[in-house]
Amino acid sequence: MKDCTKDAIINAEIQLRKISSIIKLKGRKILTNYPITPPQFIALQWLIEEEELTIGELSKKIGLAFSTTTDLVDRMEKTELVVRVKDSNDKRVVRIHVLDKGKDIINEVIKKRQNYLGELLDGFTEEQTDQLNELLGLLLQQMENVSKESN
Question: pTM for the full model?
Answer without folding.
Answer: 0.83
